[in-house]
């Protein structure tokens, strides 16, 4: 008996000990949703962290934050700028800094500790940091815009002109100088810390003492330069030295200056390339100084003799000046920079991740269809540039023409991507020479090389460097290939905007940003990119509330190509997404006036709450050549978006506590729904619109099906509209996402599987079968050789891979993945397993399931400070084991309910393995 009591005592003590010493630690600290960011301009930055623990059912009960301008002062507690004290809340996302005002160009350090709901405290986190940017326009006024030459006002073209610009007379004919800028300066004191704040219009490379300051490419990001000019922030403490230092830069045109040479989608002239910089230096004695751009800087034409975001780049190595950006260089032949009138836009820190080289793709095959013309096949269609090594005589040239496709005779063709784009390099004749273009990019798989034969050629894939957020793999090899097909189109079209294609247009078409938003967010951290797009939309909106179809609006299109509710609705949908995905209410507040103006604009354009204009379901598969909607009434898609906008605006008004607006928009949404059904719904046949796939999918998914109507019959009609086409996709750009989601929502993932698990008809598999390596603009893929072969336009199956097959979905009222759903849709699908993960703002969510005979096993991970509803296709808890235990022995599961033949378990944080028969 004594032994038994001792055993029980030891067991109890071990349980208590385990609970007391189980790990609980804040990790992954972020400021403004980034790790250790530079250039923060927010007066009250948003702080965040994950909670790392080896226990299940862990929620935060409180936190304490400390911030200091000194890392040592933070650790020893002697110079804490802000101490939040213990704050009893479970909030770990978007926690506002609440201390004294932050200073410009200052580095700060911070840490956090948390308590769980049982009162157990963590250790302090590792110290994280952030640095502020230039916080006032007055400070920027001390740094001039400088240029090598000045574009007269009479020759400026703002905004840009669509097409060749042949009617512009003598405007934009000149090749702009892509200038060098340099400044030598002396530092006599020991350096404590230094940051540089730099902008080049349109794009720049920055050097300090002969070395590039960063790996950023095509920086800063693209904006409407009359409204906002972005700058980049870099810590250069370790590159500075006592004595002489040299700052240097090369600046290219980007979207700031596009002349009328070679291929161009747009021509524009805000000005010739110009440059602006502030270097802030703090010394160890507590003093500081600044170096700024002014007329004392020197300038010279660089070897980049031609550069166009649309036409390519030429480089003449004979014009190089060795050591130009290093000390002791003789710049006597250089002229002083011109202080120029810069664009009207305010200076703002770049918030989105910079574009960088993210992959290096080697040549897979070389062919020679004709003497002097070699075709290099990289095996992958991707956005990027070439990198070459070569040797030859001074004055020899190499011309590199990229393309997505080859002709039947094996030559390159730019029919799909914009003809007359190429790279050209002139050798200096000094041993092995290396070159990569600086200020342009293209989407390509092949490159035709003429002239000097290179010893090495690589494709450098460039994209927005946002970290990856998700993963997906399955037992279906075709689906794995489709995943990568779509992913290559995603990564090739995220730069500083979300483009339609990485070659022909390079414009921020807004319908793809919102229709593909869920797909992109599962694969990449798009918080900053999509916030930047929201800023672009706020600046692009017209005074009457109309939202152009592209933002920034570098060019003004005509008619429905400029004004389409399917595109402009991004003004309402994207802020809602950012709130839902990342728990960000700031974006709702800053966007609210824009959203209200856009809805008011649609309200004025409507007739009896129906909108009748737009492009409709662009590129649907009908009897005619692809283009404007053929199968679905334009008014149906336009009015459906109008309803979605108003419905979401009502939700956002409710979230922001605006009761009056909530009531107004709730009533308006109800009126639009009534009008939609009166116009497009046949009560006798339960047919919507023309009976196309899109006609049914949009009302089903958006909740527009009339109250009391036979929803099941509407859904049966949708299925019939698919079966009558032999399960082929006919929906276009607008309708396809709604088709995918409506089928998943209504429990027809098996039909969705059958539609896409094939290669015989236009669709994903058909594209792959015909050689596509990135998703094409049209379902026919490479066989439609006049359309882009790298377009995210139809990538909506990516969303289904995560939300359907893996089953990761947000609850209706969730924000920031605090409460989500895990409900894999595998019934009727011939797949054995799926593995997926998503790095939410709250932590990593993972799901892996497999079927073996009648046994189903699923392993899930739910991050701390969150919970999930897990759906299992069983009728009783007796059929379920959790982590090898009978259900009743699994103490973590607090709630169980049944719905539609499924068991729904409310599961707290932790890792669990469910097994069902």
Automatic annotation (TrEMBL):
Residues 469-803 form the Alpha-L-rhamnosidase six-hairpin glycosidase domain. GO terms for molecular function: alpha-L-rhamnosidase activity. Residues 371-454 form the Alpha-L-rhamnosidase concanavalin-like domain. Keywords: Hydrolase, Signal. It catalyses: Hydrolysis of terminal non-reducing alpha-L-rhamnose residues in alpha-L-rhamnosides. Its EC number is 3.2.1.40. Residues 189-358 form the Bacterial alpha-L-rhamnosidase N-terminal domain. One of its GO terms (biological process) is carbohydrate metabolic process. Residues 807-880 form the Alpha-L-rhamnosidase C-terminal domain. SUPFAM superfamilies: Six-hairpin glycosidases. Residues 1-22 form the signal peptide. This is alpha-L-rhamnosidase. It comes from Pedobacter psychroterrae. The lineage of its organism: Bacteria, Pseudomonadati, Bacteroidota, Sphingobacteriia, Sphingobacteriales.
